[in-house]
Amino acid sequence: MLLPDQTYEACGPGPVSPPLHALLRAHRVPPEFFCANRTRRRHSGGGEEAGAAAAAGAVAGAGATRRRTRHQRRRNDASSSNEAVHLQRRLLSLSSELVTLRNHLHVGAGGAGGAGGAGSQPAVPPRAHHLPPPPAALPHHPAPPPPVNAYTDACNALTLTAARAHRPELARLVHDAVRHQADTGYPQAIILSGVSGSGKTHASMVLLRRLFDVAGGGPETDAFKHLAAAFTVLRALGTAATPANSHSSRIGHFIEVQVTDGALYRTKIHCYFLDQTRVVRPPPGERNYHIFYQMLAGLTPDERAQLHLEGYGPQDLRYLASPHQRRAEPEDAARFHAWKTCLVILGIPFLDVVRVLAAVLLLGNVQFIENTEGGAEPGGEAELAAAAALLVATIVRRANSLKRLGSTLGTLSSDSNESVHGPEAARRALSAGAARAARAGARSMAALNDAVRHATDGFVGILDMFGFEDAAPSRLEHLCANLCAETMQHFYNTHVFKSAAESCREEGVACPLEVEYVDNVPCIDLVSSLRGGLLAALDAECAAGGSAEQYVSRVRAAHRAHPRLADARPPHARRFAVRHYAAEVTYDAADFLEANRDAVPDDLLAAFDSATCEFGFATHLFGAELKALAAQGGAANAGGGFFRASPTVAAEGGSTLTQDFHTRLDNLLRTLVHARPHFVRCLRANATETPMLFERATVARQVRALQILETTQLMASGYPHRMRFRAFSARYRALWGRGARGERGDRGERAERGERGERAEREGGAECARVLRSVQAAAAPPAPASPAAVRWALGKRHVFLSEGMRQVTTHHFEYPHYKLINLPQIRHSFYPYHVRTSLPETAILGYYLPEIKSNKKKLTTIVLILQTWA
Ligand SMILES: Nc1ncnc2c1ncn2[C@@H]1O[C@H](COP(=O)(O)OP(=O)(O)OP(=O)(O)O)[C@@H](O)[C@H]1O
């Protein structure tokens, strides 16, 4: 039976913990034990609450009749305050009995499970001990703060106070990911996507902050300060002002926070670089945060003398005097100050960093050339770009290799390969991996290692990659960013649309709706196919020493009839257009070849050899290149050769920028397919970064590109979620109560012991059906708005659930102490919802619909957060 949840919610000094609550339900502890007064009010009332009580009663059938009689009797008893006191005493003694019982159950179930793997789970699966209670459920806050980019706050979320960074929808997501990771050991990946400027980086920082609150000991820990410092330093080097976003990330991040038993174990940042030439030569209309120039401008005369830089200084940086730069100067100076402080936290001496720059300047390769605006621009771009790229790589390495000794949180390191789940997890992983390898008849030491790695790397990852951009005209860095956005879109399509439809088909479940979505594979093929794709053709052109024009004609010839390739408008010998999932983008290939080579001359690097260079840090930065140079005969032989400016993933030399980018993207995907994804789709409210302005056309474009309509259609009418019978009943059977457990003794446990075969599956399915029928009945009228929203079906091995059913089931189980059955509220917050924009498509469904009211204008923003079940 499902007890009306508001009964629990209203009682006692604090909420009942979810596991205890589930246990109470399983044992049919009457709600009156928790709050006599509340019970009386509810029963003397009527309307909705009585309706909810009636709905709950219907679930229990004959048992409910008995209970109602008891209920009535207790209601009379409770009219006396003495009796209320008496009941409260009983509650206390009952609580301690229940704790004992719970312990007994956990121990007993573990024992009964025998060899059991998943089957050894107790009726209520153990939770992470460290997890704080889930964030306040939305039913209490029908109008949470704006969850999507309304351009009201440009602060670094990592430095915000918790209150300012309060984003309930993101907090719930983090809690769900950590909880799931703790329950299953399975890696979790929170994937942010959306166009440039939609708020991915901002949201990723809020998520990271929240992750530390939930599992990392909060923002006062060294681990958090260290990560925040690394972020600040990286953002200063890797953020630029572009037409789409004045704080656009030019470095993508995947932050792996490894958690074990619900607590942070270590963190790792993976970075994805685009073309580094922008460090010294941003495209027209764009601007970098000139940390390098601030470095020079901020040096004291003593420091200049110490670095032999007397000849250089602000007077050389006349470009700072151009009107655009003057406006930016105070902002850059403030960033520079914060940046310097963060270097200290990372343990990187500021002067070491300046020495790198000094070394490059003193080599005489960088001169400042007057530009058309009367400002100065640096020459010697390759050298400066190389120094910048390597400096960034060093900062990432430093951020990943800090050791935190003697900490309860373990070690912050990327170096170690040790298991984060201890020997037991490693053993399980090994046996799972071994079984798989044997079945496949594998050559598979590699497969085994892979299995171990993935089963033991229980991370919660936050992925913030490049958003879609359509700068006019676009360069190679934009092509890479857009390939990345296309790949993430494809990952989403496959996970959400394709696999949902395929599993329904495989298991013979009649899906009420086949969602038609736009597959972007042809576009990904056009760009990245190894046989003649745009990137492969670029490599070929670089190898042939061709020109931009030759490259474009090569591409045109190879893909003349390709539906995603178009001519630039107006036609241009160096330009071509690609029809991406979000829009058509025109690329100018003028700098494609040079950027793809990404080369720095070897004689420059030879100057950093320890024999000739007194700056140890510079030698350290170029360590790998100097080693390679030494192997080729040393500095004496330098001259005419090239090294790559950006850090590379290729073991051998000779790779190009796009090859590296592609390889990194592939590796990232390999990690993502092993994780349970959580998608956060971000929308920007307008194209001009104006605070509190909602532009319908801009939002509509993004809604269409991200296929939000198709997604919500699937959520509303399809079966987007599925779960194995055994996993489902292990987790949710408590919702069905004692009867279920009695029968489980005969049937469910047999399945748990690992018996295979159809019969066990059938019985597992029957048990799931009982649970689901109970839940469905409890969510019966007067809600949800559309009964069709709460649907489920049984396949051969999986239960299939509609989004409404998933929400009801999860909330019965996860957040029982909130008013989950308070149906009018839940309808507004959690059920498919008609979003009131003026888009022609009127059936957009969203999880949250906050309204921002400002200057009597009513604005609406949408954020769709998709949580999927594995
Ligand atoms: N929820 C929000 N409320 C207010 N301002 C926001 C919000 N989200 C983002 N912003 C602001 O909007 C701007 C763009 O956000 P952000 O840089 O996170 O976008 P992005 O999607 O990561 O873009 P890119 O792909 O170009 O890196 C930033 O100045 C940021 O502070």
UniProtKB/TrEMBL annotation:
Residues 110-119 have a biased composition (Gly residues). Residues 665-687 are annotated as: Actin-binding. Residues 50-64 have a biased composition (Low complexity). GO terms for cellular component: cytoplasm; membrane; myosin complex. Residues 740-763 have a biased composition (Basic and acidic residues). GO terms for molecular function: actin filament binding; ATP binding; cytoskeletal motor activity. Pfam families: Myosin_head. Residues 1-814 form the Myosin motor domain. The keyword NADP does not apply. Keywords: Actin-binding, ATP-binding, Motor protein, Myosin, Nucleotide-binding. The keyword NAD does not apply. Residues 65-74 have a biased composition (Basic residues). This is Myosin motor domain-containing protein. It comes from Manduca sexta (Tobacco hawkmoth).
